[in-house]
Amino acid sequence: MNREVIDTIPVFWTEAPGPLEAILMFGCGARDETMRTLGVTHLVEHLAMSTLPRLHHDHNASVDLALTQFTCSGRPEQVVEFLARVCEALTALPVERIEQESGVLAAEDGRVADPQTGELLSHRYGVQGLGLAAYRGPGADRIPLDAVRETVTRYFHAGNAALVLTGPPPAGLRLPLPAGERPDRGPAQTALHTGPSWRQEDVPGPGLALHGDLNDPALLLAVKVLAHRLRETVRHQHGLSYDVDSSAVFAGPGHGERTICLDAREGQEQRVTELLWREALRLARDGVTEDELAEELEGAREAWNDPRSTAYELGEAAADLLLGDDYQDAATRLDTLAGVTPGQVRQALADALRTALLVVPCDTEVDLVQPDGIGLPRYLCGQGVELPAGGQVFRPPLADRLRYSGARKARLVVDDAGVWVRQPDGEVHHVPFDEVVGVEMRGPGRVVFGRSTCFVPVVPELFANLGPAVRAIDARVPAHLIYAASAFRPAD
């Protein structure tokens, strides 16, 4: 792997067969946004790409949780032109196209993570940083222009960029980006919920998140073996699932989530969840075999030594530089994996299960136990919350109270500290004003979103005479967190 510097930007390159591939990478993504500005990085990417003329070679761009990437492949002169045009567009972003590109984003409805991973991250971190993966935010048409400009200034500059090439830098290559300092993200994101617990969400199948050191080879092998065992049991033996996917989510140097997510045949969600948890407990108790470790090592060797992995390896090195992690080449990683013992794998998973978060589809009930025999607790965001004694109290409309017994139990309370709602089933949810991440205007009503994933609907469909409640919310929540509902989405 070679490394050069062009226009102060680090360039990673290696000779590889095929057309020249390029990835211009920036160390920013959805995790650097807020609930109020969610989607702003994707909007910046779309605005930049909208300036390109019709091109007759492969090119694309993408945004995930941590990175924004502009990619192309073709003849050297095509790559040179593409990169120069992208840099020029980011330097003079066509903000007059925000309305059109907001509509394109609404049609795309892209997400930075699959549903299970998104909900697991939200459960772990709340509605901030990585936890934003589960949310769509206010909508691209509600992102403030100031947020677009601030995002470009803070992240899309030479100090936060790296370039990957599958060949030597071509003649004439320039990367005309403004200078800047790499953002200081501070310490790794702190988890709100350490686990273990399970919860219901709108997902197609169960998902498991284990918090730990992403550079720990024993934990990597444990998850790989667990995923393979699940394919053999859930898919091949029982025919209950098609996809078993394992992935890693970077939270900070030496810190993140290992996830395993499965889909489930309709009506078999509970069974698939039980098999997932059973196999995880069995591996943590009994460990793995030497043959299983040898199989995973051979798979890693085949993948990491494949000539087609060149762009991947270059991208890993560039990403690690931008995100402050330590890159290890394939040979070093393979040597490390080869030294892992079955006992280390078993212990790594046993330790990680203490952090386990499990998400299951709505209406799926499970009765699971932890390795020590204690039941796996269900997490409810309103657990243990009671309505306050004081504050302004609002009830459902009289007609609803006369028709439905549940409506007679429902209450909305607003005081100086925040908002509470007691649902017809008796469950109470609370959002303190100092934890509000967004307030969506729904006609005369409001929906208040909290950092802990709780939200409180303050809408006339549910409660009567809400004027004082709405005025209290608007007075106590910073104005920049209050926004109109997106014109591209029907109200839920």
Architecture overview:
With 492 residues, this protein is of the alpha+beta class. It has helices spanning 40-49, 76-91, 98-108, 115-125, 145-155, 217-237, 269-286, 290-304, 310-323, 330-338, 342-352, 398-403, 405-409, 467-476, and strands at 2-6, 9-13, 20-26, 59-63, 68-74, 161-165, 197-201, 207-212, 244-252, 255-262, 357-361, 392-394, 411-414, 418-422, 428-432, 436-442, 445-450, 455-458, 482-484. The strands form four sheets. It has a six-stranded mixed sheet, sandwiched between helices. Strands 7-11-8-10-9 form a five-stranded mixed sheet, sandwiched between helices. Strand 13 and strand 14 (418-422) form a beta hairpin. The longest helix is centred in the middle third of the chain and has 21 residues, at 217-237. The chain is globular, with a radius of gyration of 25 Å.
